[in-house]
Amino acid sequence: VQLQASGGGLVQPGGSLRLSCVGSGSIFSMNSMAWYRQAPGKERELVAAISSGGNSKNYADFVKGRFTISLESAEDTVYLQMNSLQVEDTAVYYCKGLAPPYNGVWGQGTQVTVSS
Questions:
Q1: Cα–Cα distance between 57 and 46 in angstroms, integer?
Q2: Tell me, what DSSP letter sits at residue 16?
Q3: Among 15, 17, 28, 102, which one is least packed by beta carbons within 10 Å?
Q4: How far apart are CA 16 and CA 20, in angstroms?
Q5: Cα dihedral across residues 12, 14, 15, 21: positive or negative
């Protein structure tokens, strides 16, 4: 099974991006998932997580009110809508499976750069 992340890019402060993470290789639908990020010289950190069915969502304090995680199981895709982006949000963003069929699987990462 694999996860493929996309949607990163260069955006000005205050702008928006939507990241996508598509699963493949499994006959079962995507379940609990998370987004992480890693800035240069820093450790990878949890950004947001979503439970199976999307009933429970958790966010890091530094993105609350700005980012929204969503799960479309029928599309085997998890999204991260990022609004009001700040320079400090610059990082490589990774998706990760938290439960089967993608449990422990990382996507390849997508670069988000916030700069004027």
A1: 12
A2: -
A3: 28
A4: 13
A5: positive
CB 50 within 8 A of CB 32: yes
CB 2 within 8 A of CB 77: no
In the structure encoding, which two tokens stand for residue 18, read together? 């939507």
Digit-coded pLDDT (tens) for 45-98: 999 999 988 889 999 999 999 999 999 988 999 999 999 999 999 999 999 999
Q: How many CB atoms lie within 10 A of CB 86?
A: 14
Q: How far apart are CA 92 and CA 41, in angstroms?
A: 12
Single-letter residue type at 43? E
Residue type for 5, please? A
Token pair in block for residue 105: 């699987």
* DSSP helix/strand/coil, 73: helix
| 35: Cα within 13 Å, side-chain hemisphere | 35
Question: Burial of 38 by CB count in 10 Å (0-12 exposed, 13-18 middle, 19+ buried)?
Answer: middle
